[in-house]
Design goal:
The structure is a homotetramer. Chain A is of the alpha/beta class. Helix content of chain A is 35%, strand content 26%. In chain A, the strands form three sheets. In chain A, strands 7-6-5-8-9-10-11 form a seven-stranded mixed beta sheet, sandwiched between helices. The two termini of chain A are 14 Å apart.
Chain lengths: 322, 322, 322, 322
């Protein structure tokens, strides 16, 4: 898309019923909007309808029919709907979604649908969590600078000081939040991290090889999407040093999975996966190096899709409108 | 899709304009239909809109509002529109498209769109053209028997007798149409092939490693889609024995391309491509064997998509709604 | 390899020491042999040396220095060495390995190495085990007929009668060995299967989607390699209906793994793995179909490598000299 | 390889004859060396033998049998042999190859083989040529810092000043050599580049999206390997703006090829190739972005293999001992 006109992107889902495609398209059309992309999916097993629509809301935005967005339903319902249904969008935030977006959310509710709407005029800000490994960190920052993402990184948080200089070299504020042993220290560190996220107005977090588990409490308190990357193997390996186990087992493929973080480790809704081939000639070090390359591309793709509002989470899985 | 209700699948395209998604969906909705899938694409460079819609036309089909399909425009226009715009569908054929399909074609024309509509109640019949190589032949027939295709093979035509027994073993009539040298013989052979295609009512042809070029006259006379498979290399090689050239050049990848046949050899709209990795350890024979495997999967995928009405041709390329 | 001269292929491994490459090559050279291929691997973690050598034993074979093969060590040791070290080769079998092969095995033993030697003059015969699914069955048989394998299928054994006609259509004897419930019936069925394997002189078994587990007793009694194919997922799924679980979990890749069968289900040394990409648009049926295609190519590759004596098993993994 | 003992890596090729594997291994063994890896290849069509051997020359190195390396043949022959046969190694350089390496080169010559030998104690220095695009530049430098390459980048040369700050941020000297129009200016610029290469002692050059063609004279004068990366398509496209042409043609795959530069543009021996899948949904900008990612990984792989002395060039192609 090279169009410079502001667009809205809605992700919506709800019980399937006859006429949903016609109704959403009709609503936009009648208000003078022009649909640029529309993609639907139907989960025939659970009878759920999913849709991503991107449209130019001309000339309605800036001059919507009076009262529609504000009257249709109480604001708290809107917030609840969007927060509970998605880790990725900012549906109910006052000011972040203009009145046309709000009107669409109200309209979708009348169809029994939960909707989140993002505006192309708003570039979300996020925070990178890192530890010592720097491959995903450099890759994401350089891609950001190359214009690959529809969002920006506001700062870097790390439990180690190693990447401080590199971050500052990129012009990114770096916050060292060390993690001492013990539950109390962990709680205090997460409180400090949350404080930083609030201060920069972070709307998403990328765990770029951040080697710590975030608590369920942290995820709930933050309330915004957190994307993680981890290695994946066929078969899977429990316990530590998975690359060593994979090498020991003689696997022929190693993989990486990017997913939304949940309170259950490495078990959130999958956004993207990929694999690379290995042979007996590859040492454990080779596997780790190949794993690094995979992690970079898989995480970058997940971040790109997320920021383009292409990922809709429901249940334990994602619909990726690529 | 496991639904047993008959569905219609429309492929349409035309100049982009505001409201097309709303209008097509609205038309179906108002007539009582239920959209199962809808996928759109916009070529922003040429300002062309493309859409594939699959819907259950209940209860309109069988009892359409009187006269719509037959009155809206003269039948010859409908035939011309669908034949000129697509190598794959049967838009304008009397009896093959029921009245609701015809009504949709008429409606699309009012939007300046060319549409073709296929009905799930009709399984198109096609013909396999083969020579001596049997890998694509066996693969396609066995996939057909396994239920992978939304169409059937009615018979086999070959310029060699080699696969006669194998075809009959599958219960497929086999026609040996030898090709003698000379232009006159070629014309006669194509006439004989066309006669067979007419007799079986072939709606598509698959060139499953048929090692002869079909003339522009044949393609025009047949007037239906012909799908071909050929090897592809990076870089490309002109002249004969391409696998030998690729081996000589030390390529690291070999590829295959499935495309609609046109009068220009190996140059029609591409449906599917794939590659496989090779090394210096692979002999020319290995390259050829790997090429065979590629050809099988690439051609099968192209046939599957074509028969599911997922391929829309425009200009020199395809939109594949996969 | 298009050379028509008979070749020997040795797979050997043992504790690494200085000079192994020179010694094995020197032994062959001094006896007048010509090495066509030689590939080595060193497991630096465990200090194990692995080698595959293919050579033309001219003019030694047919007229070897008297007594070397038979004197060097007692035959029972040779058998034990080769059977215990590999699921794939026929190192110690009288008559199946000519005297030069035997001499090489003796020589390797003096280096502390276990060797198996196969002769290109011998095409091993194997048996296909199938149930109802026919995709791997057809694929393997057709590849065999196309000359892709350095071995032949002697017969088909199934616990269901479904593929009897297809097998016979290919000229393959079909044995229906039904499996009634209960331990006693299972033991009797395996005894019947072993009897068939003995009668045809089966040197390997391919489980081409044979949906039964072979007992440890069966594997031990047969004493030859058994290759199995199964689906693989990231993450792995325990329990039944894995494709449904994978669909439920929203995986983006599905995989297949070919491995040597061991008494532990789906856990033997891996020969080959591959994956294919899926999206939310794919139904469970699509996943199963894509899984079928994967299973075919992955199993065929494993069978090809095995029959070309490219797979060396040690510990729980394989070295594949591809 | 985590061994800290210095190793030698020989790449050799010549007319095939009986006993070559035994002789090279025997020579190393007799002088007390220990072979770590040995990989052979035979081009059966042209009857050429290729080998890569890596060994620990203990205790010969540092205390070789007197006179072997220096007596065997005149130094100029050695230089000619290694330079003419390979773009990648430093066979004949005084001081860069120790006496054992020289002795091996002499020995190989007695077998009719051309050999180049690299020592693990020497890390070659190279120069990055860039223009404005920075993706390959950042990727290579960061991989170098991560320890992925067995060599180092000594400086950066560019025809544009754009990447000056980025290079210096990495601690890399940056030389701006602008290219004015006209033949004379081009000759002068190349002379300036060659002067820089001489001053830093560059042993290889990487064209990291350097958008200028180097003359045959430059390549001959430099006399060391120059690795280039370019996009590749199926089919190939002549003329400018290839991504636009590929988009226009509706290709389903785009590729990248890393190769040694020759006087014929984009036509040198191929080191590595890869592709990525695209669809009609991808804009030209998407294709270009995906092409950037491909270029990074393909070029990095080629550089890694080259610096590990895994690439042997002969005729118009490469043997990559991966």
């Amino acid at each position: 898309m090279t169009s410079s006109a502001p667009t809205l992107i809605a992700l919506l889902h709800g019980p399937d019923q006859r006429g949903l495609v016609a109704r959403t398209a009709g609503w936009i059309f009648e208000r003078g909007g022009n649909i640029l992309h529309a993609d639907q999916h139907r989960d025939t097993e659970y009878n759920v309808f999913f849709q991503r629509i991107e449209w130019v809301p001309v000339p309605a935005v800036g001059n919507p029919p009076a009262g529609i967005a504000s009257v249709a339903r109480p604001p708290e319902a809107r917030v609840a709907a969007s927060v509970s249904s998605s880790p990725g969008l900012k549906g109910g935030e006052a000011g972040a979604v203009d009145s046309e977006a709000a009107a669409f959310i109200d309209f979708a509710a009348t169809l029994g649908m939960v909707a989140q709407v993002a505006s192309s005029t708003h570039r979300p800000k996020g925070t990178l969590f890192v530890s010592k490994a720097d491959h995903c960190f450099h890759d994401l920052v350089l891609r950001g600078k190359a214009g690959e993402f529809a969002g920006d990184f506001a700062c870097v948080i790390s439990n180690h000081p190693d990447l401080a200089d590199a971050a500052r070299g990129y012009g990114l504020p770096f916050h060292h939040v060390p993690l001492a042993a013990g539950t109390k220290a962990a709680v205090e560190a997460e409180a400090q991290q949350l404080q930083i996220l609030r201060e920069v107005g972070a709307e998403f977090v990328i765990l770029a090889r951040y080697m710590q588990v975030l608590s369920g409490g942290f995820l709930q308190e933050f309330g915004r999407p957190v994307i993680n990357i981890h290695h994946s193997f066929l078969p899977a390996f429990a316990g530590g040093r998975p690359y060593h186990q994979a090498h020991e087992r003689g696997v022929k493929l190693i993989g990486a999975t990017a997913h939304y973080a949940t309170a259950v480790l490495d078990d959130g809704p999958i956004i993207q996966q990929d694999v690379v081939r290995v042979t007996h000639r590859h040492s454990v070090e080779d596997l780790i190096r190949k794993g690094r390359d995979l992690e970079k591309t898989v995480l970058a793709q997940a971040v790109r899709w997320h920021l383009e509002n292409r990922v809709l989470v429901y249940g334990h899985k994602t619909v990726v409108f690529d």
